[in-house]
């Protein structure tokens, strides 16, 4: 492994360095771990030691984080991890955007409670599609930001006055249960299925403002069955967990798109909870619409998972097991 000459970075503005380096240089230590480089700090200077490609990845990540701070944006552990991931994607040629442009705020979605920035190349491509296409499909495993970024985009556009309403929907289908067998009123039965959408909105808007917007029907959350017969204009419409739609439901939903509206459809085709004989409407839509102009498709992978690091490893293990196929000898026998 070739080690290059030390790469030195100097910063004119010392006031941001404590935030850049982190408490007890924790951000630098994290970059060392993720990018396999050595980083030494002295005053306003950093020295990077390691192979040339890793030095360059570390430089890009540090520059990106420094730009975030200069824009008044937060730098924490999640941002450090994201900058490192993007730098690695750039080094491997997988990234669709350079690291600095993402972390400089060019794709930042401004909501009342937080500024949301893409944390991977595919997340950046997804946000661009959400902002630029009338219909966008976000596909891939849990924890990749499909729903969260769609909700953030919808809220940002609503606050900018570009849309009048946000409409969020989910099919009320889960593994092993049917609504009719659950206790309570219809609203009480439906709410647990819609909870992830409420959680995302809670992250974007203060509670009192969210309540008022829902009372004025500027934000509407409803199960998919309630969409039939409607034409949704001047709106941002999100269908979450779309892998659990039937083909008929998916066609019905897609044809709700009205004037000056945008639509996001998110789902994970490896997590279909429909009966075995029922084909996923999301799978059919992807096959039928893949060549239709004006529609965006973004496929996330396990490397885009933003949850606990163990979630990434779990997703990758399941993906590998799916590729290898079932092995009866490895099944747990209960002993």
- State mean pLDDT (0 to 100 scale): 84
Tell me the radius of gyration: 22 Å
| Share of residues in strands | 5-15%
The computed structural class is alpha/beta
Please give the alpha-carbon distance between the first and last residues. Answer: 47 Å
The parts where pLDDT drops under 50 for at least 5 residues are 331-335
3D structure, described in words:
With 335 residues, the protein is α/β, with parallel strands linked by helices. Helix content is 42%, strand content 15%. It is built from 12 helices and 11 strands. The strands form 3 sheets. A 6-stranded parallel β-sheet has the order 8-7-9-10-6-11, sandwiched between helices. Helix 10 links the parallel strand 9 and strand 10. Helix 3 crosses helix 4. It is globular and about 65 Å long.
Q: Would you summarize the structure shown here?
A:
The protein is built from 12 helices and 11 strands. With 335 residues, the protein is α/β, with parallel strands linked by helices. Strand 2 and strand 3 form a beta hairpin.
Architecture blueprint of SSEs:
Elements: E1 7-10, H1 17-21, H2 26-35, E2 38-42, E3 45-49, H3 52-70, H4 77-92, H5 99-103, E4 109-110, E5 115-116, H6 121-132, E6 135-139, H7 146-159, E7 165-170, H8 186-204, H9 207-215, E8 219-223, E9 235-239, H10 247-254, E10 262-267, H11 281-289, E11 295-299, H12 309-324
Parallel strand pairs: 6-10, 6-11, 7-8, 7-9, 9-10
Antiparallel strand pairs: 1-3, 2-3, 4-5
Helix pairs in contact: 2-4, 3-4, 6-7, 7-8, 10-11
């Amino acid at each position: 492994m070739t080690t290059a000459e030390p790469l030195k970075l100097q910063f004119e503005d010392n006031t941001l360095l404590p935030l850049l380096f982190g408490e007890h240089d924790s951000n630098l230590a994290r970059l060392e771990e993720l990018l396999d480089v050595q980083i030494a700090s002295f005053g306003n200077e950093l020295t990077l030691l390691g192979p040339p490609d890793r030095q360059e990845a570390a430089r890009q990540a540090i520059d990106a984080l420094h730009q975030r701070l200069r824009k008044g944006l937060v730098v924490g552990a999640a941002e450090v991890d994201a900058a490192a991931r993007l730098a690695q994607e750039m080094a491997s040629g997988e990234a669709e955007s350079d690291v600095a442009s993402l972390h400089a705020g060019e794709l930042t979605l401004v909501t009342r409670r937080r500024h949301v920035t893409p944390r991977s190349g595919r997340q950046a491509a997804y946000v661009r599609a959400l902002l630029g296409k009338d219909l966008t499909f976000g596909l891939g495993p849990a924890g990749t930001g499909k729903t969260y970024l769609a909700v953030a985009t919808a809220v940002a556009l609503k606050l900018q006055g570009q849309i009048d309403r946000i409409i969020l929907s989910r099919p009320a289908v889960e593994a092993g249960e049917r609504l009719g067998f659950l206790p309570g009123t219809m609203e009480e039965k439906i709410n647990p299925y819609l909870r992830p959408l409420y959680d995302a909105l809670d992250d974007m808007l203060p509670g009192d403002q969210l309540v008022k917007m829902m009372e004025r029907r500027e934000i509407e959350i409803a199960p998919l069955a309630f969409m039939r017969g409607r034409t949704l204009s001047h709106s941002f419409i999100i269908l979450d967990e779309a892998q659990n739609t039937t083909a008929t439901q998916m066609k019905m939903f897609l044809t709700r798109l009205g004037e000056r509206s945008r639509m996001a459809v998110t789902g994970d085709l490896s997590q279909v909870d429909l009966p075995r004989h029922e084909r996923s409407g999301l799978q059919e839509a992807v096959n039928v619409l893949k060549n239709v102009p004006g529609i965006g498709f973004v496929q996330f992978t396990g490397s885009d998972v933003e949850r606990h690091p163990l979630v990434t490893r779990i997703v990758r293990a399941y993906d590998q097991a799916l590729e290898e196929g079932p092995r009866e000898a490895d099944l747990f026998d209960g002993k």
